Amino acid sequence: MLRTMLSRAGQLVLAGGMVAAATIPAQAAGPTGGINQCVVLAICIEIDQPGSSGSPGTTGGGSGGSGGGGGPAKPCTWHGVDYPCWDPDRGYFVTDTTSKYAGCYLQALDPQPNPGDPLWQGKTLGSVYMATCYDANNNPQAAFTDVIDKPPYVGGPAPTPGLVAQMAIKKLQFARPIEHVDPKTGRTLVGTDAWLWYERGKNDAELAMNVGPQSQTVNLDTISVTATATLTEVDWDLGYQEGGKEKVVTCLGGKGPGTQFVPGQSDSNHPPADACVARFGELSPAGGAPPSTAPKPTASAMAGGGFWVVATEVWTVNTGVTGWDGITFRVSGAPVQVQVNQLQVLN
């Protein structure tokens, strides 16, 4: 798994073997006291609150990072091992040895299952919780769900705005871009305009995950935080180097996703304002493998070879909580192959 730490500048890189059009939610990988995301199917990504180490037993709040943390929090000890008493991915840690949940993190499912779902176990009161537990030797056990009438964390440490901000960020979902290069899909000519675009989705929910903006709100213990993700640009790697550097075309704002070229309707000489246009400066090779750092292509390589083009969405996430604003997410698509030929003039 690719493992990437969030830098102090707040950059998070999401890339790796997703299925086509897969949404990319944040998933927990282990209790850290900060977001620790394992993206489905391929990627493990850790996010630590900027300005803190994010180490177990703390809730952030080091110099330069606030998040309402206010410094290290007292850890919960279970059979000689310290755990964060509160983890934004797993909830509160139970140390009461008289409880059936001793040694477990408990987090209410969000959203809750629909009425009649088997997870309710035939009950109508309480909430469905996910339990992530450790045995007496601190070995992780298989997670399970249970219906609990009364929240088990009464009297536990209150979450901070920074931790609630992490929970809101974790609920954001992104869709990997499905790229196209027009006017003639998969083929173009040296020095002519190529329209770069990716699919925006078929409904409002898909549009939000592909183009944005999108927001998620978490309300917990009188604290309410909304995380808003805005697509700021799309970087199109054209698959070859120019002047010793990778040839990348950056389209800002609304131009980032580009617009589709429609034969008979679109004017290649006068593209619309939201078009993302590039020109390939050289012929494509007869062979060439897709970049190893990008997700696996969803289509087979062309017989005549070509450049492998990759689009990377760049999202900026803001929460209004100090230390959790200006976080950057990068979501890359699977490479698509483009053959770049030269116009042949016959005498």
Task: Give the key terms.
eight-stranded mixed β-sheet, disordered N terminus, 347 residues, 2 helices, mainly beta, five-stranded antiparallel β-sheet
- How much of the sequence lies in strands comes to 35-45%
Number of helices: 2
Shape: elongated
Tell me, rounded to a whole number, the average pLDDT.
Answer: 72
Biggest β-sheet, characterized? 8 strands, mixed
Q: How far apart are the termini?
A: 56 Å
Short description:
By secondary structure, the chain is mainly beta.
Description:
With 347 residues, this protein is mainly β. 5% of the residues lie in helices and 36% in strands. Strand 4 (36-39) and strand 5 form a beta hairpin. 40% of the residues are buried. Mean pLDDT is 72; it is low at 1-22 and 24-72.
Secondary-structure blueprint:
Layout: E1 2-5, E2 11-14, E3 23-24, E4 36-39, E5 43-46, E6 76-78, E7 81-83, E8 86-87, E9 91-94, E10 104-108, E11 127-133, E12 144-148, H1 161-170, E13 174-175, E14 179-182, E15 187-189, E16 193-198, H2 204-210, E17 214-220, E18 223-242, E19 245-252, E20 276-279, E21 307-318, E22 327-332, E23 336-341
